[in-house]
Design brief:
Blueprint (H helix, E strand, L loop, with lengths): L3 H14 L2 H24 L5 H35 L1
Length: 84
């Protein structure tokens, strides 16, 4: 099997063998692709991971509070029924 150092050496040799004009073309293509993707992603209606995580925590707290309120309502209804 090839070790990581040997793979790095082969990759460097392949990279060094690529003509400079082709490297520039690949770099330009990568930059333009990144720009287009960033522009298109900005147009989408998405939230950041941080915003998603914050909303997840809010939802967890809201569910806990709802469960608590449902239990309290059940208690109140039960005590009201025993009074009647």
């Amino acid at each position: 099997m090839l070790n990581a150092k040997k793979i790095e050496e082969i990759a460097k040799q392949v990279t060094d063998a690529i003509p400079p004009g082709l490297k520039t073309l690949a770099s330009d293509f990568e930059d333009k692709t990144k720009t287009v993707l960033q522009r298109k992603l900005a147009q989408l209606d998405v939230v950041t991971r941080e915003e998603f995580d914050v909303q997840t925590q809010v939802l967890i707290k809201t569910r806990a509070k709802l469960t608590e309120l449902e239990a309290r309502l059940t208690e109140l209804e039960a005590s009201k029924g025993s009074i009647e």
